[in-house]
Amino acid sequence: MKLSKFCDENLIAFDLRGKTKREVMEELVELAGRSNMIKDRRELLEDILAREELVTTGGGYGVAFPHAKTGAAKGIVIAFGRSEKGVD
C-alpha cells in the first residue's frame, strides 16, 4: 500500500501556527478537509479529539499521529503538518 495514494500536496503544511494541541488538530482537519473524501469537518474534528482523549497519539520525539475511525470521511485521508516551534 502506497501512502501517497491517501495524501497529496494540498494536504501538507510546513508552517502550522497553532500553539495548543486543539489548535493544531483544527489546522490538520482544515487541511484534510481539502480532500473530497471528507464529508464533515466538524464531525472529523470531534472524532479525532475524542480519540485523543482515550490515549494520546503522540509517538515521542516530537511526532504525533492524530487519527480516528469516523463517518466523516469516505475513506483514508492523510494530512501532514509541521510546527517549527512544536506543541506540547
Write structural notes for this entry.
With 88 residues, the chain is an alpha+beta fold. It has 2 helices and 4 strands; from the N terminus they run βααβββ. The longest helix has 14 residues, at 41-54. The strands form 2 sheets. It has a two-stranded parallel ribbon. A two-stranded antiparallel sheet has the order 2-3. It starts with 11 loop residues before the first strand and ends in a 7-residue tail after the last strand. 30% of the residues lie in helices and 10% in strands. A hairpin with a 2-residue loop joins strand 2 and strand 3.
Annotation keywords:
single chain, 30% helix, alpha+beta, two-stranded parallel sheet, 10% strand, two-stranded antiparallel sheet, 88 residues
Quick summary:
With 88 residues, this protein is α+β, with helices and mostly antiparallel strands. The chain has helices at 21-32, 41-54, and strands spanning 12-13, 58-60, 63-64, 80-81. The protein is globular and about 30 Å long.
Helix and strand composition category: alpha+beta
The total strand number stands at 4
Beta percentage is 5-15%
Radius of gyration: 12 Å
What is the tally of helical segments? 2
Distance between the termini: 31 Å
Poorly predicted ranges: none
